[in-house]
Predict the 3D structure of the following.
Amino acid sequence: MSKSKRKWQEHPSCSHVFKRAGSDNWHVRLRNNEGRRVVETLGTSDAQEAVILALPRIAEHKARLLAARPRFEAAWAHRLEPGREHAAPDGNGKIVATDRELIHIGGNGGIVKIEPNGGPANRLVNWPMGAIIAGDATPPAKLTELRRQGWGPVINLDRLERPAPATKGADDAILETYLKHANVTGYYEREARATWALYKTLTDSKPLKDADRDDGRKLVEHFEAQDLKSATITKKIGWLTSAVNLAIKEGKLKFNPFSGVVPQRDDAERRLPLSDADIAECKAKLAKLSDADQLLVRVLATTGMRLSEAFQIDGEGTEGGCRFVIVGKKTDQSLRRVPLPRDLLPYLPATISGRLFSRIGSLKRTSDAASKRLMRFLRDDCGITDTRKVIHSLRHRAKDRSRAVGCPLNVQYELFGHEEKTIAAGYGVGSPVRLLKKWMDKVGF
């Protein structure tokens, strides 16, 4: 029907609004999802009121058409299918794929590395059946011919709108400031960035100034759905907690939505001390280790030090004829004098001058590498496969043996460095080294 013969009157300012011939009321004319025309009365004869009533329906209609258009959407392209295990390329171990991470597990059961499972990508959505893909390089005459032949809709791929790359805002700067301030690099930097990206995904990039603990708990719920232990969840979310705490100190934020959101659960895998049989097996296979790692095992077993503390040994002192070293972070709870026990002395240099164990790069990288070597020793060489038994089990064994021989609790604190103050404000405060050595000698190896 030509426009001159139409039986309706179009609104002068809105083509979707019209008045039927012989009707006083205005109508709105739209199309449904199937492309069929839908006409609804607006119930008013006032032209201005008709447009006001029609606008929400027209906006919804246009939004629906826009959402149905072929387009690119930002997505995450997985390198390996998430939710299952995959064989390692070298055939040694396996790879556990989560939605965003690939966890490489070696043949001894230990984690070798963690890397992203894929990366950001664009995906096509609302692609019509039978659509023909074209590009700007396709000659216009060819496009006209394709459309004339009716093979299907012809879509110019190069002219589809692609999602704009994510821009960094003030909240991203808060994380960047913290990572630089705390010198967080390597794996821990990647973990912090991944947790921050996850927060933005789960909250639709809600500004931190508007966030509350319910937003922080969305991270907890996500990690719990992956069956992660509460300690692991606390560590991951801890990067964001620390970043916001720094921003609060600098006056950029007033509230921390990540503080205290992880519920306290008794779900940690309890570590077991190495048994006498385990220690006997370690002694029998000790020669499989390098000389430095043999000494490291003896230091850990006879003193109950943490692995990182052994790499802090940098010289020695003497008191009352007894040799000792100072280890522990600069806190009242861990900084302490550790007497060198009788079973360890034959394997030490006559005097420790300088670092006992070489340190390459940061202390963390050095002790992490040593942990992997010694875990391979326990699992592969000694056959200790119980996952509750690790290198840190040597510390548990030392503490158990000190309790078994009746070592006073306050002396245990001084020997192993926890709960109570040890050296306190000065290195000379605490029990005499000779007294400490008497009890340390009873741990043995």
